[in-house]
Input
Amino acid sequence: MSSERLDIRTSDDVVRVRQLTRTLALKAGLSLVDQTKVITAASELARNTLDYGGGGFVLAELIEGAGRHGVRLTFEDQGPGIQDVEVAMKDGFTSGKGMGLGLGGARRLSNEFFIHSKPGEGTKVTIARWK
Amino acid sequence: MDRIPILKFGNALLVTIQVDMHDRLATALEEDLTAKIVEYNAKGVLIDISALEIVDSFIGRMLDNIAAVSRILDADTVVVGMRPAVAITLVELGLSLTGVKTALNVERGMELIKARLRTTESEEDDVEQ
Ligand SMILES: Nc1ncnc2c1ncn2[C@@H]1O[C@H](COP(=O)(O)OP(=O)(O)OP(=O)(O)O)[C@@H](O)[C@H]1O
Ligand SMILES: [Mg+2]
Output
C-alpha cells in the first residue's frame, strides 16, 4: 500500500496536504462528494497542525480492508497539546480567531476519527474515509 | 507574493479564483478587494469559485468577511459557481454562509448585481429630482 509523509511547516504545505489527499482519494476510488469531504477534513487538520501545533507532519496512506479501499491520514505535532479534548471538539470552541469548526467538522466529514493529545507533548489526529 | 487579479467592469468588481489558495493569498484577496471597493466606489462584487474543489473554514470565513465588509461599504457581494459537492461538504462542516449571497453562475450573479445597480441609480435620480 502506498503511503507518504509530508511536513507541515507553512501555509503552502497545507495546500500540498490537500493535493496529496486528492491524489490518494482518487486512487482509492472515492466518489466526488467523498473526495471533497476528505480533502476538506484534511485541510482543517493540517491548518490546526500548523497554527496550534507549531507545525508537524501528516502520514497519508491508501488503505484496504473488507474488499474496499480508503484513505487514512494521521496528523502529528509536538506542540502544546490540548487541555480538554472534549471541549476543543465542540463546534464553536476556538482558542484562536477561528470559528471552532475544524475538529468537529473533520469528524463529521470522516468515517473514522481518533484524537489523542497531551498537554506539553503534542497532538495526534487520525481520520479515515472509505469508499 | 502572488495576488488574485481583480477585474473592474463599470461599478462592479469581478474575481475569478482559479488556484488552490493558501491562507495568506486568501487574506491578501480580502484586503485587496476592500481597497478596490473604496477606490472604484464599487457597488457590486462578483466572486466566481467554480474552479474551487473545496471550501474549508478558512476560505468560508474569507467569503463571509468579504460579504460583511462590502455591505458596510455599500456594495453587494455575490458568490457564484459553487460546486454541488462543495455545498454538501460545507453544510456538513457546519458552515452555513448565511451572510453570503449566492448565484448559480456568473450570468445569474451579474443579473443580481445589475438589478442592484439599477435601483441605486434610480434612487440617485429620485434625490436629484
Ligand atoms: N494540533 C493542535 N494542537 C493544539 N491545539 C489544537 C490543535 N488542534 C486544535 N487545537 C485546539 O482546539 C481548538 C479547536 O480547533 P478547531 O479546528 O475545531 O477550531 P479552530 O481551529 O479554532 O477554528 P476553525 O478550524 O473553525 O478555523 C483550537 O482553537 C485549539 O485551541
Ligand atoms: Mg481549525
Q: What stands out?
A: The first helix of chain A runs from residue 11 to 27. The pocket of magnesium ion (ligand 2) is lined by residues A 44, 47-48, 98, 102 (CB under 6 Å).
